[in-house]
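Q: I'm writing up a methods section and want to include an example of the input and output format. Could you take the sequence below and give the corresponding predicted structure tokens, formatted cleanly so I can copy it straight into the document?
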Amino acid sequence: MRIWKNSPYDGLMLLPTTLQTGIFVWLALTWDERTWLQIGLLAPVAVFLAWHNPIMTTHNFIHLPWFAWKPLNRLYSAINSINLCMPQILYRYQHMNHHRFGNDRIGEDGQTK
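A: Here is the clean output for your methods example:
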């Protein structure tokens, strides 16, 4: 059974999401045990991942879902919704409207590219 729909390199896109989810869950479960220094050292990593996720990882996933099996794509979307702090399906609709309503170049066939 094939896991990756397009390429095994799609697994590389899964790493930042997994790291971000892990950091969020770990901090939530151990917040009282963390020192301000530990939180301060993790803050730049968390901020970078929160910026990277919607711009790179989620954007790529919306256009080219990674998994060959649709339930895995749905599971990824549900888990990634934690990172986005909103349902990924809502993010998808908002993003596809960006393409649909003329925010992209229109080709000779009248469709946006």
